[in-house]
Design goal:
InterPro entries: CheY-like_superfamily (IPR011006), NreC/VraR/RcsB-like_REC (IPR058245), Sig_transdc_resp-reg_C-effctor (IPR016032), Sig_transdc_resp-reg_receiver (IPR001789), Tscrpt_reg_LuxR_C (IPR000792), WalR-like (IPR039420). The chain is α/β, with parallel strands linked by helices and about 220 residues long. The chain contains 10 helices and 6 strands. Strand 4, helix 4 (about 100-105) and strand 5 form a beta-alpha-beta unit.
Length: about 220
């Protein structure tokens, strides 16, 4: 596929400059706009659509300072909230935890790559995602396959999400409010989480989940 128009979304100007230079070396790929967070990305997509210059692919970071994060931006883009036909979104980040990968996939991302991947891997991912195919870094694909093949109990997406909130120090009540569920449901999830991780308290659950790269360290 040629003539791929890319919107580059990352909050670090130096990183964006490096990615722009790398993408510029890929035949048939051009960065037509940049954004520092999700809100700016939605605005750029809307503007380019109005100008009749649609984007073929969004290359999206996950964490972007105090601005809208990549998962939320991906959800909004795929829901058509930019006022433009939703282009594929390829996540390009430094994070490879289950929590991040699952959140991005559930948000509708077409691919998930790591920033330290060789340029040729990123080039192929750009081509695949722009063509409507799934593009996963080998490490990410291995983690997803591990979840499928692992005979031991695997945490559900909701349990991983709850663990992420738990790791920030939130109380059961605060978690219940955040996830729009009851405190009793939170406690039930915690029982299942403790059982699956082989622990008996919050601290141990967070430590074990972090060690296994189910969630990020906080």
């Amino acid at each position: 596929m040629t003539g791929i128009r890319v919107l580059l979304v990352d909050d670090h100007p130096v990183v964006r400059a490096g990615l722009r230079a790398m993408l510029g070396d890929f035949p048939g790929v051009s960065v037509v706009a940049e954004a520092a967070d999700g809100d700016a990305a939605l605005a750029e997509l809307s503007k380019l659509h109005t100008l009749g210059e649609p984007v073929d692919l969004v290359l999206m970071d996950l964490q972007m300072g105090s601005g809208m994060d990549g998962v939320t931006a991906t959800q909004k883009i795929k829901a058509g909230e930019a006022g433009a036909p939703p282009p594929p979104v390829l996540i390009l980040t430094t994070y490879d935890t289950d929590a991040d990968i699952l959140a991005a996939v559930e948000a509708g991302a077409s691919g998930y790559m790591l920033k330290d991947a060789p340029p040729e891997q990123i080039r192929q991912a750009v081509l695949s995602a722009a063509a409507g195919q799934t593009a996963l870094a080998p490490e990410v694909a291995a983690r997803l396959m591990g979840r499928i093949r692992n005979p031991s109990p695997v945490l559900s997406g909701r349990e991983v999400q709850l663990l992420e909130l738990l790791a920030t120090g939130m109380s059961n009540r605060a978690i219940a409010k955040q996830l729009f569920i009851s405190e009793a449901t939170v406690k039930t999830h915690l029982v299942h989480i403790y059982s699956k991780l082989g622990v008996d308290n919050r601290t141990a659950a967070i430590a074990t989940a972090t060690q296994r790269r189910i969630i990020r360290g906080h």
